[in-house]
Amino acid sequence: KKIVTLAGDGIGPEIMAAGLQVLEAVAPKINFEYETKARNFGGAAIDADGHPLPDETLASAKSSDAILLAAIGGPQYNDAEVRPEQGLLELRKELGLFANIRPVQIFEALKHLSPLKAEIIEGVDFVVVRELTGGIYFGEHSLNKQFARDVNDYSYEEIERIIRVAFDIARGRGKKVTSVDKQNVLATSKLWRIVAEEVAKDYPDVQLEHALVDSLAMKMITNPSDFDVIVTENLFGDILSDESSVLPGTLGVMPSASHAQNGPSLYEPIHGSAPDIAGLGIANPISMILSVAMMLRESFGETTGAQYIEDAVNKTLLDGVLTKDLGGNASLDEMTSAIINNLC
Amino acid sequence: KKIVTLAGDGIGPEIMAAGLQVLEAVAPKINFEYETKARNFGGAAIDADGHPLPDETLASAKSSDAILLAAIGGPQYNDAEVRPEQGLLELRKELGLFANIRPVQIFEALKHLSPLKAEIIEGVDFVVVRELTGGIYFGEHSLNKQFARDVNDYSYEEIERIIRVAFDIARGRGKKVTSVDKQNVLATSKLWRIVAEEVAKDYPDVQLEHALVDSLAMKMITNPSDFDVIVTENLFGDILSDESSVLPGTLGVMPSASHAQNGPSLYEPIHGSAPDIAGLGIANPISMILSVAMMLRESFGETTGAQYIEDAVNKTLLDGVLTKDLGGNASLDEMTSAIINNLC
Ligand SMILES: CC(C)[C@H](C(=O)O)[C@@H](O)C(=O)O
Ligand SMILES: CC(C)[C@H](C(=O)O)[C@@H](O)C(=O)O
C-alpha cells in the first residue's frame, strides 16, 4: 500500500512523525504492509517551489492508495498572494474529495475540557458529513475595488452523491440523517431538500429530518446528543463542523477523512498548524494518530488495527498522559510512546 | 409618535399585547406620547389577503416612526407557495433595514439555563451586528430540476455602512470590533476585510480584529466573554446570531433591532411564533417587552423608559417569576403584570 504523507507547516512535521510511528508499531500486529512517500505541500511548498501544491505532490497523491495530511498555514502567509489553503482547495478538487467526514465524540477522560455542562454532552456521538468540492467555494469569484461576487452552484448529482454517503453512514450507525440547509432563502437549499427527500426513498430504514442552518447552529450546542449523521453543503459544513469541535472541548482529538468517488482518500487532523508551538515538541499528536486509525479502517479495511489505535489512545488519556493543550505536561514524544505502549 | 404593530402568527398576538401593556404602563412615567396601529403581516396576512406583506401594511410601516413585530410563521406554511418569511425579507428590503442588532447578555437569574458552564458565560456581554439587506439573501436565485444557483453580491458601500454601525456601537461600549468573514475563500469576504480596515482608520479609539467564520463559530462558545461587537454579512450573521442565543440558554429573553439609513426601525424578539403553545396564555413575553425597551431607547431616545423596563424585567426574574420555558409556572399575564408592578 502506498501512502503519501504531506507534513506541511508548523507542528505538521512533528505530528506526522508521531502518526507514522504509531502506524509502524501497529502494522506488524495486523500484517499490514505499506510504504510511505513524503511530499511537499502548503507553506513549505510555497517556500520551496512557489506553489502550495507542486505537480510532483499532486501526481504522487493521485497514484497513492491513501494520503495523510498533517497541517498547513502560518501567519507569514496571511497577506501573501499565494496561500497554503489554495493548495488544499486544489488538492480536494483535483482528487475529487467530495465527502468530508468528521466524527464527533467525547473522550471520557477529557469530558471536563468541554465548555458545555456534563449533562449536555452525555452520549454525544455523531458524524458531520460535509460536501467538499462544490458550492460557493468553487463557484465564480469576482472582485474589484467597488464590488465583489461569489457564486454558489449545486447540481442534482453533486447533492445526491453526498446525501448518499450520509445515508450509507447512518445505516451503519444510529439510522438518522439530519440534512441541513437554508431552504427558506437559497435556491441551492431548495434543490438540496428535494434531493434529500428523493434519496431517502432508497433508505426506508433510515430516518431523515431537515434543519435550517441557523437553527442547527443552536441545537448542536443545546441538544448535541440528538444527532447521528449531519449532512450539509460546503460552506455550512465548514462552519458547523468547526462548531461541533467545541463539544469535546479540544481540537486536539479530532480526525477527519475526505473521500472521492474513485481514488485515494485523504486523512487529516481538524486542527491547524499551531505555529506558536511548532518545533517545541509539545504538540498534541492525537488527532493525527486518530487520522491514521481512520485511514486503516476506511481505506484499507483494517478494522482491527484502527481499533487497536483508538483503544490505545483512550487508555493513554485515561492513564492521565496529557499534553499541554489537554491540561497535562506530557511532551509529544511521551504521549506518542505511551500510545504505542498501550497498543494491544 | 406613530408605532405600527405587526402581531403576526402563533404566540405573536399574545406577546404583542403584553409588550403594549408594558409600553402603556411606562409611557406616563416618562411623558411619552404615542399611538399604535395594528397591521396584518405574515401568515395571518397570507390567510386574509394572499400575501404576507399587504400594501397597506407596507405603507403604514413606511410612514411610521417605529415598527414592533412579534413573530411570524407556522407549520401550515412549510410547503406553501407563499410563505410568511417572504414578507419579512420584503419588509427588510423595502424599508432598507440593513443593520440588525442583537445584544447578547446573560440574566443573573437565568444563568442556570445556559448549556455552558458558569465560568464560560461569566461576563458575557456582546452585540451581534448583522448586515440584513444584501449578500446571498438578495442576489439572483435560480432553480431547476437539475441545477441551482445563488449569487452573493456585496458592494463597497453596503459593507461600509454596516461596518460603521458596528464601530459606532463599539465606541459607546467596549471599543472592540470583531469582523467576521471567510476571507480565505470568498471574494465578498476579501472586499469585506479591505473595507473593515479602511473604516477602522476613522476609529483610532476602537480595536479591530478579524476572524474567519468557522473559527468564530467555535470561539463564540469557548470564549464568549472575549467579544464586544461582532459584525458580519447577512448569511454568516443569520447563523452566528442564532448560535449566540445558546449562551443565555433561552431564546425567550432576546430582543433585536433593525435599522435603516433613514426611516423607521423595526424591533422584534429573536424567537419564532411557537405555534405549539399559541393561545394557551403561557408564552414568555420578555423578548417582546425588551424589544419595546430597545425601541424606546433607539428610536425615541427614551433612555430612562428603556432602563425602567429592563430593570423591571431583571427584578421580575430575580423574584422568581418565570414562565414555563424558563422553568417556572407563571402565565403570560402573571409575568406581564409582575413586570408592570416592578416598573419604577
Ligand atoms: C483552510 C480553509 C480553506 C478550509 C475550508 O474552509 O474548507 C478549512 O477551514 C477547512 O475546514 O478545512
Ligand atoms: C425567516 C428567515 C428568512 C430569517 C433569516 O434568515 O433572516 C430568520 O432566520 C432571521 O434570522 O430573522
UniProtKB/TrEMBL annotation, chains A, B:
The record marks Y137, K182 as: Important for catalysis. Keywords: Amino-acid biosynthesis, Branched-chain amino acid biosynthesis, Cytoplasm, Leucine biosynthesis, Magnesium, Manganese, Metal-binding, NAD, Oxidoreductase. Substrate binds at R92, R102, R130, D214. Mg(2+) binds at D214, D238, D242. Its main location: cytoplasm. GO terms for molecular function: 3-isopropylmalate dehydrogenase activity; magnesium ion binding; NAD binding. Signal peptide: none annotated. GO terms for biological process: L-leucine biosynthetic process. Its cofactor is Mn(2+); Mg(2+). Residues 2-339 form the Isopropylmalate dehydrogenase-like domain. This is 3-isopropylmalate dehydrogenase. It comes from Pseudolactococcus plantarum. Its EC number is 1.1.1.85. The keyword Cell cycle does not apply. It is found in: Cytoplasm. Belongs to the isocitrate and isopropylmalate dehydrogenases family. LeuB type 1 subfamily. Catalyzes the oxidation of 3-carboxy-2-hydroxy-4-methylpentanoate (3-isopropylmalate) to 3-carboxy-4-methyl-2-oxopentanoate. The product decarboxylates to 4-methyl-2 oxopentanoate. Gene3D superfamilies: Isopropylmalate Dehydrogenase. InterPro entries: IsoCit/isopropylmalate_DH_CS, IsoPropMal-DH-like_dom, Isopropylmalate_DH. The gene is leuB. GO terms for cellular component: cytosol. NAD(+) binds at G272, S273, A274, P275, D276, I277, A278, G279, L280, G281, I282, A283, N284. Homodimer.
